[in-house]
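Reading is simple: the token line describes the chain's fold. The lines below illustrate.

. . .
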Amino acid sequence: MLLLTAVILTAGITAFATTTGSSKVISQQTPKRTEFLKLYEVYDTLNSQYYKNVNKEKLIDSAIKGMVNGLDDPYSEYMTKSEQQEFTDSMSGDFQGIGAEMGEEGSKIIITSPIKGAPADKAGIKANDEIVEIDGKSTKGMNSVDVVKKIRGKKGTTVTLLIKRGVSTPFKVAIKRDTVHVNSVETKMLNNKVALITVTKFQQGTAAEFNAALKDMHEQGMKKLILDFRNNPGGYLDEASKMANEFIGKGEVLFYTENNHSKPQAYKAENPADPVTKNLPTVIIMNEGSASASEVFAASLHDHDKAYIVGTKSFGKGIVQTAAPFKDDSMLKFTQMKWLTPDKTWIHKKGITPDKLINLPDYANIHILDPDEVYVKGESSAEVKSLETGLKALGYNPGAVDKTFDENTALSVAQFQQKEGLEVTGQMTGKSTLKFTELLRNKLNADDTQLNGAVSYISTLK
């Protein structure tokens, strides 16, 4: 079930792990150990006696994946060549496609935001456009991952989308694919020269983007700094280290690593801190979606008294993965060590507790209603409670916020429909549901209690 905050605060759904980057290529040798005899016997039996031809490569890949799954570690995985390429692309910030972020609203695939200057933007694609078909094939039954795979393709090739915009007749748009770069750092100057820098992930080049952002904000007269790391799932550890080094001087410990075979090993800042950050009051906003490399960065600054942390407790991922490629371009990503904060705290499954707890409003965590469903009087469900919570946030009075769609709920829905120029039925479905979700998103963006709280908090810092 999707949560409203997941739609607003994240640009897309991409899995990242804290990684140390690629290591040396692993040489493949034929093992002679007896513990593998059963594996060979199973392979030979299936290869020779299965009732139809088998895909040998698929059998081997599946066997390796099974071995990794035996670790019961959600962060370790074996990737085939194609899976490795997708992972590498996601960590580089570059991909070949049309450049549009999308999500799911019920059974519909909706453009959430075309990337500025990308092919989709140039072709006139707009936020809230629905993708009905891709190259003549209906998107019905597809999820956003399926759609992304079909839309992405080689630079210079063309994909044709059937787009539905509002109540207008669907129209076709032919878009030529190109290389698209997704920035991981965004900047904004708030009132009183408080700079806001949002870091969405630690991909290749994030540290350079961050350095440029600091310089830009400094040139605009930055006096204080807020770093928004909410829903930052992590990424490359070396990028986070370079960023922390902007604040922490040469020779100071950024973090420690430790495994079963060694004592904690210190990783220290290699360069002098950036003069721009000297004595710069800094606050980091985190939430339960802030994980991995974002926690490494935040803990480094916090333990060295370079920043305060506000928001909610972070995710708590205190382990490090390394990527080991094979000659056939497949790859093994596995947990190699755990990391500790500069004061040698292991935050795994515990998270980082903020200096000041600041929650989002209750309606930020409601379930997104499916526009294909019809919510009517007499119904009792968790979705009805979400509906009532949202209606109350929008200024209506649905009565008791419970799981029951009663007369008060129906009246509030009717009032909402009348105010928004929708068909007045007292039932929540279709266009009414989409409008309801849109208004809540806009309200949450406008009433960002965590950002507002961070601004208030940093105003007290000298």
